[in-house]
Structure formats: C-alpha cells, structure tokens
Design a protein that fits this description.
single chain; mainly alpha; two-stranded antiparallel ribbon; about 5% strand
C-alpha cells in the first residue's frame, strides 16, 4: 500500500511539473501593501490551453496511427443474436480458415 501511495504522489508531482512546463498553471504574487507582513500567492490555471493541448495530442495521435481504425468492424457493425458473422478479408490478412472436423465416427 505504501508503494502505491508513493507511485501516486510521484505521478501527481510529474503531472503538476508538466503542467507548469506546458503553461497550464502559473503562480503569481501581488506586491504587498506597505507595512504589511501578509504574503499572497495565486495559482492560475489556463483551461483553454489544456483543451487546446489535448486536441493537438488527439490530432497528432490520429496522424501517427494513420487512422488505423479505418475499415475495421465496430461493435455497431456486429450481428445481433445467433446470426453468423461473415468472414471477410481485413487489413490484417485473409479470413481465418475453419477448423477441420475431428469428430470420430461411432462404431455402430
């Protein structure tokens, strides 16, 4: 359990550090009033930048994968019930061959 907590804390520190690097978070401190000992620190988040970076990552991932999912069968395309699916060639190669009948005949 202690190792899991350590991993979570390290992961959180990495995300926060990466967020500062990417400009998602910013710290600021207004100048204090004369004669005051108060220190104010503000943490600002730029959610628009986060969303823009997320969209950029999605676009880059689609570009790098070459839209691999194009032409594949989706769950919506699967037959419903006991209707057998037709085996058509896919981008991975020809359809799989059916297993041979290995049933032994009865001696009757």
């Amino acid at each position: 359990m202690r190792k899991l907590l350590t991993v979570v804390i390290v992961l959180a520190i990495c995300v926060v550090g990466f967020g500062f690097y990417r400009g998602w978070f910013a710290l600021s401190s207004p100048s204090p009033a004369a004669g005051s000992n108060d220190v104010n620190v503000n943490l600002a988040t730029d959610t628009d930048k986060m969303k823009a970076d997320a969209e950029t990552v999605k676009d880059k991932a689609a570009e790098l994968t070459g839209n691999v999912t194009h032409g594949r069968v989706t769950p919506a395309d699967q037959p419903i019930g006991d209707v057998p699916a037709t085996s058509a060639p896919t981008a991975d190669g020809p359809p799989p061959a059916e297993a041979p009948n290995t049933a032994q005949p009865d001696g009757n």
